[in-house]
Write a structure and sequence with these properties.
Length: 56
């Protein structure tokens, strides 16, 4: 799972990859996690970045 998350994070820089439905699902997963994460040192890619970017 950790490898998948890292690969998805890396692939998110590709406009072609972002056009796939899986990209939207992964972004929603990252955002869901970031909203609920309480860890100071989280291993989920982009957790801290998304936590600061999410608009409620």
């Amino acid at each position: 799972m950790k490898r998948f998350l890292r690969a998805s994070c890396w692939a998110s820089h590709s406009s072609k990859w972002r056009s796939y439905p899986i990209a939207t699902a992964v972004l929603e997963l990252f955002t869901y996690h970031a909203l609920r994460c309480q860890a100071l040192q989280c291993n989920v890619p982009m957790c801290r970045h998304l936590r600061g970017q999410v608009l409620l």
